[in-house]
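Before relying on records like the one below, remember that each one covers exactly one chain. Contacts with other chains, cofactors or solvent are not represented anywhere in the record.
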Amino acid sequence: MPFITYLSGLLTAQMLSDDQLILGVEIHCEEKGRCPSTCHLCRRPGKEQLSPTPVLLEVNRVAPLYSLIQDNYTKEAFRSAMMSLSWCSGKGDVIDDWCRCDLSAFDEHGLPSCSPLPQPVLRLSPSIEPSSTVIALEWLDVQPVIGTKVSDYILHHKKVDEYTDTDLYTGEFMSFAEDLLSGVGSSCVAAGRGHGEVPETNIYAVIFKCLEPDSLYKFTLYAVDTRGRHSELSTVTLRTACPLVDDTKAEEIADKIYNLYNGYTSGKEQQTAYNTLMEVSVSMLFRVQHHYNFHYEKFGDFVWRSEDELGPRKAHLILRRLEKVSSHCSTLLRSAYIQNRIDTVPYLLCCTEETRPSGMVWYNILKDIKITCEEKMVHMSRNIYYLKMS
């Protein structure tokens, strides 16, 4: 029903008197407003005329709805109902800071379901830009003030590409509380917090430090409560940056290959050129080809000269490696100039000295664990690509 009708009903039931205004609520009869003649709250000097469209309320102070009720028993019942609806899905009672579920509020596994376990939202950390080997992710703690108690967060990550059957390769699962905060997990993954974040906001973070360049990774996260329930999954799919290259060294190698190919090429020189081109990384080989063609285009294309000097078989083994460069990275590796840069990013790495008894994880609340964080400097090596301006 319209709120104005609700107020009129209270007046009719003698729950409101003519000399008692409702706390926090004022009703104004504006130029376009119309109020029923039975509502004493609408009577204002000079506002007696009626107009067709009502402008009902202006709230000047927030007050709980149950405070409008004068009877103590009804007020308490209303308060309990509102608390149950807000925190326990209306299927249980709020006791201190937890929900006592009704007998009908249990799921198919026999676990109480009146206090839903919220889904955490995994996201890329704004503090650290992804590099070729490092990605930082974070999420906000989803434990509510009242109701379910989060015991742990479970992370899962795996590399995804067309050469791997993602159903067979399951990736790696990690417990945020047991593996990462305790330091038992891999040295390539660390628990942390974004630099400058307020601790009270409870933003958890994880840094993956040993990823493969130019690779697609799928990360998933879900929460676990003290009864063993799992939340819905949150998924993020990200690609690491292109492999690092030393552009100066790539240009030196291109010059070396030109000198080996120039003039009469002995068997020793051919083998030296072949070994050199097979030993460099795929991204470096792509960059060597770029510099060779840029500087010595009149002498002959890199592919043609390699086939002519090394023979079709060895040249094929070298050139086949270039197929492993993604289309995205091949565009960047054709840049006019590539600069190396090392970014130093401050970050809070966190751990705990508390030990959690084996098999009792579900009964420990994550917020109750004492976590200490120390500022560390994360070094990020990057390539800066300078494209040609047309």
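Residues 72-87 form the longest helix (16 residues).
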